[in-house]
Structures are given as C-alpha cells and as structure tokens.
Design a protein that fits this description.
Strand 1 and strand 2 form a beta hairpin. The chain has about 650 residues and is mostly helical.
Length: about 650
C-alpha cells in the first residue's frame, strides 16, 4: 500500500478529511499511516477523486468573501466579541470558523446523528431538529428538537398546544362532506356567468402566466358542457362539465373578478368537478389534463398542499401519456402554415401545460421533500421560442394580453425552475444522502455558481440582490403584473439560495467542531441565513403589492425564512445580529397579516391565527435564548473575576 500511495501522491481518506482543518502531511505508510495507526482507523484510499473546477471555486470564494464583507460592514460600528469563534451568521471568515462554539455561549452537546437526512428532515448546523411532513410539506419539531430548544432557551416550547389542530401556517381544510353531498346537483351555473369569467380570463395577464385553458379551444369545451342531452351522458360532456367547474373554481379566486362577475361558490365548483373526475381514467385527453392541473392549482391557492400534490401527480402522468414532455416541431412557432389550426393549437397548448406542470413540480418537490413527478432526463427543457424576448419586457405584456399571443410568460422564471430541479436531485435526493462532505460542498458551490450566472443575466430592473439592507425599498412600479413578477423571482431566488446552502447543515464536519474544517461550511450556512433575512426584509417592502390569490403560495417563503433565522438565533444567541433578527421575527406576524387576501373562510381565519401564534412563540423562544446566554455569560465572567 505504501508504494502505491506514494506514487499517487495523495493523502489517505482520513488525512484528506483533516486537510481542511489543519496543515498535515500524510506519510502514506503501509499498512497504516501514522495518523490512522495511532487512532485505530483503517487506512483507505477509496474516496472518489473528481477534477476540480478552479474558476467555479474561485468565483464562489469571491462571492462568499463579498457577502462576508457586506455582513461585517453593516455592523462595523458594533464592537465584536474578542473570542476566537463567532456564529456562522457573522461576516468575518475567521469568526465563521467555529459556529457551534459561539462567543460566551455554553458548549453544545454533540449533535444527534439521524440515520438519514433529506429535505424531508429539518436539519440545522448538524442538528436533526425534526422533519417535514411527507403528506403536507410542513416542518415540525421532533421530541429531540424540542429538547434542544429547551436546553438553548431554558423554557419548554408550546408547539404541541399551538399545532393541536394541524400545521400552523398551511390551511388543512378538507373538502366538506356537505359539498360532496350537494354535488349530486351537477347543474352548471347560467351560461352568461361562465362567459363573463372567460372574458376576464382572455383579457387578463393571468392567462399568459397561468395558461390553464386555450382561449380558442375552451369555447368548444363550454359549448359541449352546455349542450342539451337527453338520457345517459357520454364521457365527453361529463369531462367538459368537470373542466368548466374547475375553471370557475380557479377564476373565483382572482381579485380581478371580485366585483365584475357574479358570485360563485369556488369550493362547490371544485367539489363538483371532483365528483365527475372518475371518468377521466377511461378517456385521457387534453381536457382531462386541464382538469387535473386546475384542481392542483386551486388547492395550492387555497392552502391544501396534500390534495394539490395528488392532483399534480395525476396531471404529470397525463403529460407523459399525451407526449407533452417532448415538443412538437411546430409548437409556439408563429410562421408555421398550420398556425391557428386545431391540431396546432392542441400541440401548442399541451406544451404550455407541460411547462406549468414542470414549474409546479419543482416547487412542490422542494416544499414537501417528495421526489419530483417529472424527471428532467425524460423531458425536453428547451425554452419556448420568444420566451426570453417577452419575459422581461413588461411593455409588451399589454399587447400580448390584447392579442392572440401563444408565447407563455409562466410563473417566475423557467430557468430558476430548472436550477430548483438540479438542487433537489444533487442535494436532497436519496443518492445525495450518501455523499461525502467534499462532494456535498462541491455540488453546493456549483449550484451557487449557476444561480449567480442566472442572476447577473437578469435585467437590472428585475435583478435580485445578494442581500437586502434593512432600509431596502423596491422601485415603484406602476405595472402591477411586472411588480408581481419582480416579487416572485426575488422570493424564488432567496429561497433557492437558502435551500442550496442549507444543505451544508448535513455535513458530518459539524460533529467534529474543528475550526479549520468548519470555515467553508459555516460560510455556506451564513449565505443561507442571510438569504432568509432578505426574504423577510423584501416582504416588508413589497407586501402591499402582492396579489391576494397568491397568499397561500407566497406565505411559504417567509415561514421557511423564519425557521432558519429562529434556529440561527438559538445556535448563536450572543451574535451581534441576534437582536436585529429577533426584531425581524417579531415583525413577521404583522407582515403575514398585511399580505392582501381575499375574504377568508372560517377555517382560514383559524389557521391565520395559528400562524400568528406560532411565529410569536418562536420570537418568545428566541428572546429566551438571548437572555439565557447573556445571563450565563455574565455569571461565567463573575466567577472568573471572583
């Protein structure tokens, strides 16, 4: 072994892991090097060696240095503690070296190692604090996690009381039996009501962002649904009725339809469509895909993640059955002779439905920790023609709305959805759980580089910033759809930044607590925490521009950020930023309440109240952690001086 190791001129696996934390020289002796011999370890050379991307690593280091300088600059007037270790949220590279041993904080117990980790588990700085429920995507604190909170705060958390009725910030209202029983009356509303909602859809930017139906083909669906029929209904009119009911359920949520159209019970429409849906398994077509996606979208927009995920999975399977995951050669082209023909419109609309299903798929996957339903390897991810020409050109949006444009805007940015998909696979898949720290950090850096390349290509008017100052104010934008697009990509960017770097919390190095080894990892965690701060700061500035129907989609972003900031306060209660972070947490309930909503259902009122109480409890616990750490530090200083 000795000669082979010498010829390879590399350290054994154990010494290689130690290189990040101290200057060592593996002697590669046979059968064991000096280090392995004295520590009773097996001396191996089995790790995977991959070529390094020098430019990417350099770029990431520069980004981390820039952020650390930014963090340090904001607190330049604050006297930092003089000890050797600070928190991962502080700016200096040296201070980030030992995040677990925060200045004057009591030493933490060794983190409990869980048998597995995924995005379905809640980890922070090596601690397994709980999980994300597999059926609704809601984080919860485990018994061990609550015990850790108690040791850091000196008080017991009251989560069991607050969450007695279900997850606090996600509406878990189930379809009421009364609605399903009333679905026996499946008569559609008067035709003019459907026509009014369809007219609103055709003239609204909503149809470009969420192309749930085609503005020409849906007329045929309406005609078929209202066609008089004597005797037994065939499959086609039943499916058409379900599509119209699903469309009404979606449109009644829109703020733009609140005053201009007749009132329709959205829950009843959704329930009636579901009552008719068994027929789609026997006759799968484009209309069936529209139904499944609109049901998914409706339940996402009303806060019912579990039901939405089930309809989404069905929609994605139909996407494959109809071949929408691979584009037609004539899809989206405006110069094709087949343009405006029925076959062309069907192919083009199917491709739009694929992209919107793809966007939702990656969003649901990261929120719930469940595997994606659409595998990128089986999908053609070529962006729609002209997509980039109009996506960041709001001046063209009015023209697109008034005309018969077939260029979809779609939610957010499709390129961010593709990066989200890579993030889920590389960092949070079952395969990712077996990666070494070095492999995990390499993937984090590469994804960070790709996200940064996307950011710098965004026009300045839309471009997210790496970090929002607490005095941040967004530019005033008269075009509301443009403002919503800016808000959406800011939230997505900061969430994706936090998600990418949060994966460093799974590194095994957290258990060793050796300062040199922790430098890169703690810098990565610092990016995750700072991105979470930016989410709340941006929400505070842009809250009054949010569309009410987007509430249950948007509220996930601040809640995810709140959890990260809360855990960071408990980990580093004496960090100079801890008090500012507590102020951010304290302002969160008011921010969430300020997010404009449509008229709340009684169940939503209950869950909004629970959300406020949950965040208030996190704020209380954060204050307890800061007070306890300060008291312990003062007591320790008194003993030392005495």
């Amino acid at each position: 072994m000795g000669s082979n190791a010498t010829s390879r001129k590399r350290a054994c696996d154990s010494c290689h892991r130690r290189k990040a934390c101290q200057t060592i020289q593996c002697d590669a002796a046979a059968p064991q090097c000096n280090w392995c011999e004295h520590h009773g370890l097996t001396c191996t050379f089995t790790r995977i060696t991959r070529p390094r991307k020098q430019s990417g690593a350099k770029s990431t280091r520069e980004r981390i240095e820039r952020l650390e300088q930014l963090l340090a600059g904001r607190k330049a007037s604050v006297d930092r503690p003089a000890a050797s270790g600070t928190s991962p949220s502080t700016g200096s590279g040296q201070g980030a070296a030992a995040p677990i041993q925060a200045q004057n904080a009591l030493p933490l117990a060794p983190p409990a190692r869980s048998p597995g980790a995924s995005f379905g588990k809640l980890h922070f700085a090596g601690y397994h604090l709980g999980g994300i429920c597999s059926h609704n995507g809601i984080p919860f604190f485990s018994t061990d996690g609550q015990e850790w909170i108690k040791t850091r705060t000196g008080t017991s958390p009251a989560f069991s009381t607050l969450c007695a009725l279900g997850p606090p910030w996600q509406n878990q209202q189930h379809v009421q039996q009364a609605l399903l029983s009333s679905a026996s009356s499946l008569e559609l509303p008067d035709r003019h009501i459907v026509d009014e909602y369809f007219a609103v859809f055709r003239s609204s930017p909503f149809r470009l962002v969420f192309p749930v139906v085609d503005i020409v083909l849906f007329r045929d669906t309406i005609e078929l649904a209202y066609e008089p029929c004597e005797g037994h209904l065939s499959a086609e009119p039943i499916i058409a009725k379900a599509c119209v009911f699903s469309f009404l359920a979606i449109m009644t949520l829109l703020e733009a339809t609140a005053e201009s159209t007749a009132k329709v019970n959205s829950d009843a429409c959704a329930a009636k469509a579901q009552f008719l849906m068994p027929q789609i398994v026997y006759d799968t077509n484009m209309t069936c895909l529209e139904i499944c996606f609109m049901q998914c979208m409706y339940h996402l927009f009303t806060g019912k993640m579990q039901i939405a995920a089930m309809f989404h999975s069905l929609a994605c399977r139909i996407v494959f059955m109809l071949g929408a995951h691979t584009p037609s050669t004539t899809s989206f082209r405006v110069d094709t002779p087949e343009r405006m023909g029925r076959e062309w419109r069907i192919k083009t609309h199917l491709r739009k439905l694929f992209w919107i299903c793809y966007t939702f798929d990656k969003d649901i996957s990261l929120r719930t920790g469940q595997p994606p339903a659409l595998d990128d390897q089986y999908c053609d991810l070529t962006l729609p023609p002209m997509y980039m020409d109009v996506r960041y050109c709001a001046d063209k949006w009015d023209m697109l709305c008034q005309g018969d444009s077939e260029v979809p805007l779609l939610p957010g940015d499709l390129r961010l959805s593709i990066i989200s998909s890579k993030t889920s696979k590389l960092l949070y898949s079952a395969e990712a759980l077996h990666k070494s720290d070095a492999e995990l950090l390499r993937d984090i850096r590469e994804l960070d580089d790709e996200l940064e390349r996307w950011r710098v290509l965004i026009p300045a008017d839309y471009r997210p910033t790496l970090s929002c100052s607490r005095q941040f104010e967004p530019d005033s934008v008269a075009n509301t759809p443009k403002m919503m697009h800016i808000i959406a990509i800011h939230f997505e960017y900061h969430f994706l930044m936090a998600t990418i770097h949060h994966a460093s919390c799974r590194c095994r190095a957290w258990a060793s607590c050796e300062s040199g080894e922790m430098e890169g990892i703690s810098s990565s965690l610092a990016l995750s925490v700072e991105a979470s701060r930016s989410t709340l700061i941006y929400l505070r500035a842009a809250v009054h521009a949010l569309y009410s129907e987007a509430f249950w989609m948007i509220v996930f972003y601040p809640m995810s950020a709140i959890l990260t900031i809360f855990c960071n306060i408990l980990l580093n209660p004496l960090d100079p930023k801890a008090k500012d972070d507590l102020e951010l947490l304290a302002s969160a309930p008011q921010l969430i309440n300020a997010m404009r909503m449509r008229r709340l259902t009684p169940n939503e009122v209950i869950h909004m109240k629970m959300t406020e109480e949950f965040v208030s409890e996190l704020t209380r616990l954060g204050r307890c952690a800061v007070n306890k750490a300060s008291s312990d530090a003062n007591e320790m200083a008194t003993h030392q001086t005495g």
